[in-house]
Amino acid sequence: MNTFAERVIAFNRALAFTDSLPAGIRIMNPFRDNPGALAASEAFYRKYYSDNRPRRLILGINPGRLGAGATGIPFTDTKRLRAACGIPHDIPETHEPSSVFVYEVIAAMGGPEAFYGRFYINSVCPLGFTKTGAGSREKNYNYYDDSELLGATAPFITENIRRQIALGVLTDTCFCLGTGKNLSYLAALNSRHAFFGKVTGLEHPRFVMQYRAKSKDQFIARFLELLGGNGS
Fold first, then answer.
1. Which residues of the chain have pLDDT under 50?
2. pLDDT at site 230
3. pLDDT tens, position by position, 140-155
4. Would you say the pTM of this structure is higher than 0.90?
5. What is the rounded CA–CA span in Å between residue 153 and residue 71?
6. What's the CATH class of domain 4-227?
7. How far apart are CA 103 and CA 112, in angstroms?
8. Burial of 192 (0-12, 13-18, 19+ CB in 10 A)
9. Strand order in the sheet with 169-177
10. Are the C-beta atoms of 39 and 89 separated by less than 8 Å?
């Protein structure tokens, strides 16, 4: 059956970046590099998306190592995957602060079944990046952190926004996680291609947890207001 879940799974399995990247930057593709992430994400999507309801799109920046880079599911670390979503897995344990915030929002909106019945989360760039720094230590890297990387990924980003829209999402509004560079880039892209009626910015969960944790409840309330926490 051609459900939303099966279209997402096919999209994830086909994700590949084959162009050149700047020196020291590596692509992160959990669907090809991590069999556990592929299996866990497919179980997740079949649990919550085995229907053809239209959903609104929420786009983050790009996957990070401890969330989607580990599980294949944006803003879902291994702890939330097991405890909040009820998906068993054998992926090494990860803890992502952004995932903590997102799942508090999800709980406030009625839980995963209610939330994922209305929204589909992915990223402006659906594959992530790491950069090797001092001591050969890899760290998360954003698609806009380097002008050369941005130039290399621009066609990939544009094509994959089209492919995500083709999954069956509503296009009146797209919600963007990140009110700075991510919103600026997506808004400019939308001006050129008219993907969505409007792009609405929301504070990035990592920003909230790292810099505004004491005001977390206020940000959750803002998410509920803009996303329509009353079910609208």
1. 231-232
2. 52
3. 999 999 999 999 999 9
4. yes
5. 23
6. alpha beta
7. 8
8. exposed
9. 119-123, 55-60, 169-177, 198-202
10. yes
